[in-house]
User: Fold this.
Amino acid sequence: MNAGPVGAARDRLHQAIAQLTDAAGPAAGADEVIDALRVCEEARRALDRAMVEATADLQRRGVFSERGYRSPTGALADLLGWERFEARRRVLAADNVCDQIGLDGAALPARLPATATVFASGEAGLRHVEVIARLLDSGPARRLAPETWAGAEVQLAAKAGIYTPSELHTWGTQLLEILDQDGAEPDDTPPAQINELRLSRFRIRPGGTLTGRFDDAALFDAIAAAVDAGAAPRDADDQRSSAERQAEALAEVCAQVLSRGRLPETGGRRPQLTVTVRLEDLERRATGASLEFGGQLTAQTLRQLACDAAVIPVVLDGTGVPLDIGRISRTVPDGLRRAVTVRDRGCAFPGCDRPPSWCEVHHVREWQHGGTTALHNLVMLCSVHHRLIHHSHWEVRMIDGLPEFLPPSWIDRTRTPRRRPPPLLHPVGRLLTRPSAQRGRAAPTCSATM
Assistant:
């Protein structure tokens, strides 16, 4: 760490820890050791507050998104070596007990002002903040009138210094049940008999919206079964909403059908992904392109898409007239993909356990820069980590025929390579399967969320 205010503070902190350790050493009396424990807890809570404030500050500046992360949770986990639930706990606290910046740039007070006060004073710990935030975001809490909701937050904050987090959760749940005596209002309006799906592209930015309704039980069940197969939480700490999980599952189902499934023809051709590239962009090694439905693509997304997809490149001249329509072809042949699958056994990124069926094949050295479609230049990545490689400063390289990943310098100053642990072998030489496959889990998981 470079010399400066932070380095000087670190040195003083280490000195204080050393003094505290000496004061509670073997020569100290029992009361002194007990006092040392109390001081350690005070220091831990103070450090938690400092870490939450720093996280909130980086979020306000947009640092994590600028460096390729969709979520600060994934950035903190990679930066500090935390489990996702630990990173998510700090992010949740930062969102609720720190000042925020509105869309108009104006400063906004903390969402939980009473909780912020007891957290700042050290009366409440990080787990207390998490419990209060989750209670006040529950269904019963959302049904309360604003003034009642604010009063409940004050009562919960007042109990944080008395109750343990588990006791606070139990007490708070009972409080909200009392305040929300009527529960959700019943809706007796019969639904209209409608089966429809609308796809609307955004006018001024990439992407779009899907809205649909299916009163036909058979139609709805077919869609729900396909979405449910991939919409299970990735792990016990997956905090994505049900809507987020289902949206990502639907997109992944469609992507797998496009690349491997069978679909009816549309206008005399099977549905495939069409990428339109201007001739001048192609001459500049494709710095931009657009999708048939989804809008404009960035150069990074275009390169990610071209790694392992059946695409139709359509080259346009300066007036928009098609010059050439390429043939549909897979960048990575099936036989070569099987070889990559045998070697990587799914996403090769450290800590990820998504299986091969949920993964794409990435060119380590990009094809447009002379990279070959060969085993020594290919690595299997899930969509989360494929995007991370293309949109951040993470790098992947092949060493002795195996992939390893180099974190950005802001995560690890030494950029020490990271690899997934090698597979275990049975005493007779048989490769052991992944734990998730052994347990027969219904939904493959990925430990990283951005």
Summary: Residues 66 and 138 are 32 Å apart (CA to CA).
